[in-house]
Amino acid sequence: MAGKEKGKGRQRGRGGAEAVVGQVDGGLARLEPDRERADGWTLLIDGAPQSHVDLRDPGYLDFSYQRRIGHLIDLCAPARQPLNVLHLGGGAFTLARYTAASRPRSGQQVVEIDAALTAFVREHLPLDPQARVRVRSADARAGLAKVPDGWADLVIADVFSGARTPAHLTSAEFLDDVRRALAPGGWYAANLADGPPLAFLRGQIATAASRFGQLALAADPVVWRGKRFGNAVLVAADRELPVAEFTRRVASDPHPGRVEHGRALADFAGGALPVHDASAVASPEPPPSVFR
Question: Whole-prediction pTM value?
Fold first, then answer.
């Protein structure tokens, strides 16, 4: 889910490309051509922006939250080193495309529940046939359960039903299975969305802290201050994270963000308790103004 952070009108692409519309399991899918990039497209589901893809330049990440996850893909291992990456949530496969371009020969699995969406994206925004990306149609948690122990160097969770993260993907038990699938030293990255009073975000920090030794969170300053609904990117691991470099990159983005970790992040969580399956709830519904 991404909101007003894009800041661009989408009408006709360069060269006169028209929008493409199709019904998928999750609602009405629409691919809007990017009027500023000849091969750029934005995927929306029922009007909510989900992904941006540049077919000519898969290394270009337009949404701020995807750019921040892109920084983590860059930083989790030496440059160009292949990785095993599990993507929970497919969308338009933006981050899988980015990984394939920046880390050739990586093995990637994408778990996307909406089979009709996958077919729609494959038809209109085809994946590079040389990219080693396997797409599985399944619920994210069910698909995660089928990943072999220790297979993934990086697990990326970017799952939204409409504009909300499903409850069963917010719990400590879910993270137990993430840890099972991660290789020693592997990283978990999640796209989270919340607004004032940020109770969901604080609970997700506490939940990740109950399962991982190192955390960092990147978000826009207005989101940190509880002034606006928006995205935050959480990264968790059991080894030291390159917080200084991640902070520098996030601060240098076109829409600069702020990174917190350690005691400051724990203080921000403010005594929130970890979420468990029995009490888990979906992330909050964003206000309509987010998508205007």
Answer: 0.94
